[in-house]
Fold these 2 entries.
Entry 1:
Amino acid sequence: MTQKIEVILDSKQCQGYGMCLMSEDIFEIPQGSQVAQLKLHMVDLDREDEIKELASACPAQAISFRILETA
Ligand code: SF4
């Protein structure tokens, strides 16, 4: 059993501030868009601190996460 972090982006909340782009392998704002998109939905558990920081850094509180058990 492995644990992974599911990153959740509420695109209705996102205001396009771009703070999340510090993790550029996870988030992107496509050209011409005002809203971030997830490039990666599941990340390794050893990035938990980074994901927590992203969630608290988002001014629109659009980022959340949960830890999932994967087979
Ligand atoms: S930091 Fe939050 S509001 Fe800004 S682009 Fe990322 S998800 Fe959207």
Entry 2:
Amino acid sequence: MFEIQGQSTAVAQLQRVIASGRLASTWIFAGPAGVGKHLTAVALAKTCLCDHPQKQSGKPMARTRNSCLPPDFEWTLACGRCDSCRAVDAGSHPDLHLIHRNLIRYHDHAGNSKASTLGIDVIRGEITGNASPEHPVDPKLYRRSQRGRGKWFIIDEADLMEPPAQNALLKALEEPPAQSFLVLVTASPDHLLATIRSRAQLVRFGALPPEALCPRLLERGLTPGQAKLLARLSGGSLGVALRWLDAGHTAMDEDAPAAPSRRESNRSAPRRPPTAKSTEPGQFAVLGWIDRVALALENLALGRGGGTALAGAIQSCAEQYAQAELRRDPLASKVVLTRDGVAVMLGFAAAWLDDRLAAAVAAPIAAPLSPPGQLAPAVVSRCLAICRAAEHQVDMNAHIGLALASAGAGLEQAIRRGG
Ligand SMILES: [Zn+2]
């Protein structure tokens, strides 16, 4: 568990429970997407399944420092060498079951599911079993542990479980078989039934600090400035930042001239945001999307472009984002991904506006999207409200083009009229 960075509180909580020997049978790992919840769940299972777990004091080594544990606390760690540890690393441990929505392809006999939710077929097939005469499935939950150290079930995106799936799970949780452990990994614990939440031990995970996130982004070839920018825009989520980078690669490979802001800027010659200068052509599309949204806003603020251009930029970037994600996960819904893309681009716009607010009150900006210009705080507040309203509308299934056109017009009006 030493390898888990930036989650001292959660790791300390788990180490204390392991040391006490009183492991709950159901856990909820809650926190933003992409901050290490799944990794920690697997590390917990690996430690508990290990044939020769090791006790190690955190005192001698700097890397083991955890401010939430006393320096002489004895950590319990997986040995990393036994058959069980090797099987976990290879993804082939017979007592560790990883459950995610894409498993529907093994359980959906009609083959229609878009895997946008975690259906009851997955929960039955992977955990509780199914007594249906056409497709009977053994309940894995009630099988004997094959290596004798218990069974672990880790459900990713558990909040996507449909109500029947949650109810099926709840029945199993009411009388859990001995030595079976279930970890529900979720960014939205409120979407789980209250009766499930009340039976589970909650572990909270927070956003990652830039010092835990930036080194991993530098490894991907970003400059320090770009790494700080993505650390900020991803809300401290390594998973989100890496997904953007991967989507960027795909988008760039297939939509060759995908740095439109560069071409547009040459045509209309407005001031360039600094992130664009460090963006290598053919590299990460996400930096191009950030640029393009920032540039459209900057043009709007300077009277060189209108709200329609901004709305068009956001929609086009959101569609590129959706195409890239769809190539990675063909089972996903394009409409849902485009909505996700709009939310991402509106998040970039909100960050650009935040920079203006910080500049107006002379507050430091850690990783600005573009050189901080002036906008009155009242204008920024109005614009942020418009962005939030647009995101909400799109989330509630409004027509994306119309919602963005309306937001663009509203932003143009707010900026032109000074609020
Ligand atoms: Zn081991």
